[in-house]
User: Fold this.
Amino acid sequence: MTLLTTWPESGPETVLRRTSEPAEIAAALAPAGVRYEQWPVRADVAPDAESATVLAAYRAEIDRLTAEEGFVTVDVASLHPGDAPGWAETARAARQKFLAEHTHEDDDEVRFFVAGAGVFYLHTGGEVHAVLCEEGDLLGVPRGTTHWFDMGTRPSFTAIRFFHEEDGWVGTFTGDDIALRFPDFDTLMARRAERGTA
Assistant:
């Protein structure tokens, strides 16, 4: 279940918004220029499917979005427990790369979750929006938006990535430690399991 939680940027002591309703999530994020939509999930695509299989399964949606937004590169990022020897170290390094607040000056960050989950934290307009994305969710973060991403201590996800630039993912880090002051992926998932929502 997708979940949006919003706090003031001063800290997570006060919850300003919590919703799992797709229309409410899209409406809450739209003023910041963030795109949120849900695509049909292809049940015949395994969570650890090869990139070519994933791209073929979602070809119609990919072609539509690429035509609308002018993307030049589309690829698949995937990380699942036990993928290969050294998985734990690979997962730790990948998580650390995205966990600090950053921006993208030359491109939007657009991801569609084929399988698994991750949390995008958007720091905009004096608020922090934690968007817990799961399979079927597409999130588009506009260039220049301060944000970070947490995939948890045991990452398990497959996502289609869209780029306007051929360089792919290039982040500019703000140096702010704000990400340390808000609940991480594991905490949000645990709270959701306890309450039926985070």
Notes: The chain has a mean pLDDT of 91.
